[in-house]
Amino acid sequence: MLVKKFKLGFGTALLAAVLASNMAYAQEKSVAITAIVEHPALDSVRDGVIEALEKNGYVKGKNLDLDYQSAQGNTGTAAQIARQFIGDKPDAIVAIATPSAQAVVAATKQIPVVYSAVTDPVAAQLVSTVEASGTNVTGVSDVLELEKQVDLIKRVVPNAKKVGMVYNPGEANSAVVVKRLKTLLPMEGMELVEASAPRSVDVGSAARSLIGKVDVIYTNTDNNVVSAYEALVKVGNEADIPLIASDTDSVKRGAIAALGINYKDLGIQTGEIVARILNGEDPGTIPSQTSSKLELYVNPAAAKNQGIELPEELLKSAAVVVE
Fold first, then answer.
1. Alpha helices (H) in the chain, listed in sequence order
2. I need a surface site. Which of 97, 140, 214, 277 has the fewest CB within 10 A?
3. pLDDT tens-digit profile of 266-312?
4. Distance CA 131, CA 12 (A)
5. Is 295 in contact with 262 (CB distance < 8 Å)?
6. Would you say 162 and 241 are in contact if contact means Cβ atoms under 8 Å apart?
7. What is the value of pTM for the model shown?
8. Parallel, antiparallel, or unpaired: how do β-strands 294-298 and 257-261 relate?
9. pLDDT range class, residue 56, cuts 50, 70, 90
10. Where would one find the signal peptide in this protein (predicted)?
11. Taking residues 185-190, what's their average pLDDT?
């Protein structure tokens, strides 16, 4: 009788162990993350995605296989990474920034794709609508109200008439911003002066081409520009040209001010969508999202370096004053 009891207990334990093993195996998921380049804003998005996945029970090394690759600013490399990821067949791909998102979306119609830090996903042809797309693609946009950006330029440089913008004309999100600014700035008595930087190494020379032609330089979340922002700061400091950014991390690197999104929060928002997909939701039923939470960063030392004295009201209204 004692032996019989022992056998039954052993069999039950063995069965429970097998079931637990199968359940653990079933819960294992794989996520691939790619970004067009590494810079503080996009790195924050990646970190936010990983944090959100962990909060939802998906932990790298336990039940999550996580692969991250950067294209180092090269669109050809972005396409190669996309093809590799498609071959790996992960449960979801996170594509950070427009060029990487375009590469991944062009490569698959089956694997769920969640884009992040894309200004205009419709113009970039990632989705046909910001409503539920009915496809394998959804995500989170970092689009900003440009009216508020123009207002910030006026608050920092009240007498500005000519606004310079260094950008990559081949990046869809930047082309959208330029087109919109050409409409908005004349309404405020200002004019846009463009300087092309197709590669990160072109940012410094593009900025120098604006010396004597502009009263201020505004930068959007153009990946070439943000990845080489120090080159822009060097020109701004040497030529006394105020720099206004839309990426708050650029303020820490030498811009005077930025009214922008917290990219870590954007990444967390993105990661929540990824978790929903890993839990079984169809990406085609999830509408694209945006972030409405904006933060004002100011850098008084940068203002001094670029010949500007910041008004007290601007300093008081800032969420973060960079010392």
1. 2-27, 40-55, 75-88, 98-107, 146-156, 172-187, 203-208, 223-227, 229-239, 249-252, 263-278, 300-305, 312-317
2. 277
3. 999 999 999 999 999 999 999 999 987 899 999 999 999 999 999 99
4. 50
5. yes
6. no
7. 0.79
8. antiparallel
9. very high
10. 1-26
11. 97
